[in-house]
Amino acid sequence: MRVIVNSTLINHRTTTREDMKKLSKPAALKIIRGICRGNGTVIPTNHVRERMAQRQFDFQDVLHVLESGVIQKEPDLDVKTGKWSYRIEGMALDGESLHVCVAIYEEENIIVVLTGIQPRGR
User: Fold this and answer.
1) Is residue 47 part of a domain?
2) Stretch 21-34: mean pLDDT, rounded?
């Protein structure tokens, strides 16, 4: 797996019809896990990097959730980008609950980490 720190390249990419395809939850998890296991690239946005600093979790926590979490809810369509956003719910390495939202660029084997959310009570 590659991790790209500068995510400006993906932010300006043109959305294609293929991008707008909604994946089933199992299909999305299969792609996400494949990419995390070395078959693609993970790109954290500036937004998630800010949230990691504010909410005291790190990229290893994000990867752990992506590799072991579950998708409970249906994805949301971002009308601005035309991409589906998938929320993976799991546990950070310290055992605390963490939800990670990603966009999948299946054709390029890329997932973009959009944000990390710690449910109330942490």
Assistant:
1) yes
2) 95
